[in-house]
Amino acid sequence: MSTFHETWCDQCAAALTIQEKFGLEKALGYLVGEKLLHHVEAAETRPAFARTLPDFVAAVREMFEPHVLLEYLDSVKRVGAQGHVLDDATFEQVRGIFQEDLVSAAESVVRMGRIREMLLQ
To answer: For residue range 24-60, what is the model confidence (pLDDT) as tens digits?
Structure first.
């Protein structure tokens, strides 16, 4: 379990670096819209991820004020790496490259809803 703990701790630290270099929106996209989202997905089938999820969520809640999390969650358009790496114009240019699976997209929406509940409770 310590490996999972170290991984999300490193991801939280990386988010702070991203915030310093690229801004708050990029940091939240990286940490919440990519890393936490993947952790939630893994927790659905892997007990080690499920055990560390509450601590990861608590760390994110400590890093960002509730109004900042709410603003991000209310404005998120895309998740995953392309959600925070690509701007809108670039995403539209390369959209056809990404396989858009409606089931996967719907699962991400449901997971982001769960993340919203966990972060804003």
So the answer is: 999 999 999 999 999 999 999 999 999 999 999 999 9
For the entire predicted model, the pTM comes to 0.84
Which residues lie closer than 8 Å to 31 by C-beta, 6 or more apart?
A: 11, 12, 14, 15, 18, 60, 63
Distance CA 49, CA 87 (A): 30
DSSP string, the chain: -HHHHHHHHHHHHHHHHHHHHH-HHHHHHHIIIIIIHHHHHHHTT-HHHHHHHHHHHHHHHHHS-HHHHHHHHHH----SHHHHHS-HHHHHHHGGGS---HHHHHHHHHHHHHHHHHHH-
Q: What is the mean pLDDT of the chain?
A: 87
| Residue recorded with tokens 């929406």 | 109
Question: For residue 105, what are its two tokens?
Answer: 């997209």
